[in-house]
C-alpha cells in the first residue's frame, strides 16, 4: 500500500506542476494583446475496487482506493479582455464575438483577437509579424486619414478631395466552440475538428461583434485570480511531496524492524 500511495502522490505533484506552468504562461502574457488565459483540466485515475457497494446491510459504500490524477487538457477561456485606447488608426478591437482572419505564410488561415495592424510595403494591412489580413485591405500610400466604422468599412481621404473613398471591408470569423481552437503562438489560433468550421460575416451582423478603431483588446488574465491559483497549486504540490516523504519514512521504518 505504501508504494501505491507514493505513486499516487507522484501523479499529484505532476498535475500541480502542469497547473503552475499554465499559471506562469498566463502571467507572462499579461501584456499580450488579445491573449486568452488558459486553465488545466484534471480527472481522477482508475480505482482499485476491493469491495463493491452491494446493499444497505452489506457494504453500502464499498471499498475503493484511488490511484491519483492526470491532466486531460488545457482550455483557453475566450472571455473578452478590457479595451485600451491607443488613438492609433490601425489599432482595431473587436467588441463582442469574432476573430480576425489571417493568412499564414503557407497559405493556411489562422485567427486572432490581436488587432494591432500595420501597413506593409505593398500597402496591405498585416499583423505585427507581417501576415496578411484576409480579406486583404490595401491602403493607398497617399491617404491622409483612415477611418474604420463599427461595421468594418474602411474609408480613406485622398489629397485634393474631401470625400472619403472606401478601400476595404473587415470581416470576422466565429466558431461554435472557440475553446476547441488550437493555439500556435504569435497570438494565432487555428481551426480544429473540435472548434468546428468558422462562419464569417460583417461586424455588427447577428452574433458578430463590432469594430472599435483606435483601441486594442488587452489580455483577459486577472492577476489577483492567477496569484490565488498559484498559492493553491503550491500548497497542493507541497502536500503531495509531503505524502511522498511520509511514505518513504514509513517504508524505511518497516524495513529496519
The major β-sheet equals:
3 strands, antiparallel
SSE ordering: HEEEEEEEEEEEEEEEEEEEEH
Shape designation:
elongated
Number of domains: 2
Q: List the total number of helices.
A: 2
- Rg for CA atoms: 26 Å
**Low-pLDDT sequence parts:** none
Relative strand content: 25-35%
Order the strands across the largest sheet as they lie in space. 8-7-11
- The number of strands is 20
CA-CA gap between termini: 18 Å
Question: Could you provide a short overview of the structure?
Answer:
This protein has 2 helices and 20 strands. It is α+β, with helices and mostly antiparallel strands. It starts with a helix and ends with a helix.
Layout: helices, strands, pairs:
Elements: H1 2-28, E1 38-44, E2 48-51, E3 63-65, E4 69-76, E5 83-85, E6 92-95, E7 100-103, E8 109-112, E9 118-119, E10 125-126, E11 132-134, E12 145-148, E13 153-157, E14 165-169, E15 172-174, E16 182-185, E17 188-190, E18 199-201, E19 210-213, E20 215-217, H2 223-256
Antiparallel strand pairs: 1-4, 2-3, 5-20, 6-19, 7-8, 7-11, 9-10, 12-13, 13-14, 15-18, 16-17
Helix pairs in contact: 1-2
